[in-house]
Amino acid sequence: MVRVLLALLLAALPGIAFCHSPQEAASEMAASANRWLESLSEQQREAAQFAVNNPERENWHYIPKAREGLPLAKMTAPQRKLAHALLASGLSEHGLLQADAVIALEQVLRQMEGAAHRDDTLYYFTVFGRPSPTATWGWRVEGHHLSVNFTIANGTSISATPNFVGANPAEVRIAHEQQGRRALAAEEDLGRALVLSLNDEQRSQAIIAPQAPGDILTRNDAQAKSPEAAGLGYAAMSPDQQEHFRALVALYANRLRPDVADAELNKIAATGWNRLRFAWAGSTTPKEGHYYRIQSPDFVIEYDNTQNHANHIHTVWRDYQGDFGRDLLKEHYSESHK
């Protein structure tokens, strides 16, 4: 199974280091956002739309709680369909299926816990600014274990972080129509396969702690702080391990629509894969607590599976300077004031 996943992911890696134009993505997102907004009543739109510079845009989390925006619970069936189309405009087919699987796990938790707050309609859709193919604006879809954030600057540049996807339970082990489902199976299996492929010397560098941290280290901080640079460098891996490592990074990037994902992967290739490191903490045995991260001077990908007897996964991609499009907006406002 791991070999099949690797083959599929490697086939998806861009073969030529060039950046796809983001104009098509920006245009499709704007069209989807406007179709959804136009379907809303005035009262719904007041809940769903904020100014692009509103502090709420950086107020994100991945726990079950009330949020700003318009939840699925307060939409009609046609409005929900348009909201789902907005989510689809930013994600790949794989990313959309994964997001749907995460949302569906609320039904499992409701059965397991008998808790009313486990609700698959409490996912909130929010637009920041006025969507246009040439404007600067943003949008968010967020709820328990899902936070999808996009910022579009001038219709020419796109930021897609923070991007958080979690799964509880990581594997559905109760009698339920979803029994056996693993929403983040590849993230777990490919990460473990990589650390197990290392020789003793490599593993002594890659495994940074015998115990995994209780959660991702960047948490839900508005400004992500870089964890300590640790682990095994890309240059210290064998060619096969490097290929595996690139596929693991691609797995996270390919949650996004292909043109945006390719732009992220090409950016990494342009600055150099040798700037990346792989670090592991905790057990390498399935169903025991573990954590890994992939980091460079620019970004970090974190994976943690320690809660609920290692059956509860958190994953995130953070960009130290570019979360919420900070770098894009800084350039935009600098150009606007010239």
Structural features, described:
This protein is an alpha+beta fold and 338 residues long. The protein has 11 helices and 13 strands. It has one domain. Strands 1, 2, 3, 4, 5, 6, 7, 8, 9, 10, 11, 12 and 13 form a 13-stranded mixed beta sheet that branches. Strand 3 and strand 4 form a beta hairpin. Helix 1 crosses helix 8, helix 2 packs antiparallel against helix 4 and helix 6 packs antiparallel against helix 8. The termini are far apart.
Q: Write down the Rg.
A: 20 Å
Major beta-sheet overview:
13 strands, mixed
| Helix coverage percent | 25-40%
Number of domains: 1
List the helices and strands and how they pair.
Elements: H1 2-12, H2 23-38, H3 42-48, E1 49-50, E2 70-71, H4 77-90, H5 93-113, E3 124-128, E4 137-143, E5 146-153, E6 157-159, E7 163-167, H6 185-196, H7 200-206, E8 207-209, E9 232-233, H8 239-253, H9 258-271, E10 277-282, E11 290-295, E12 299-305, H10 307-310, E13 313-319, H11 326-336
Parallel strand pairs: 1-3, 8-10
Antiparallel strand pairs: 2-3, 3-4, 4-5, 5-6, 5-7, 7-13, 9-10, 10-11, 11-12, 12-13
What labels describe this entry?
alpha+beta; single chain; 338 residues; 13 strands
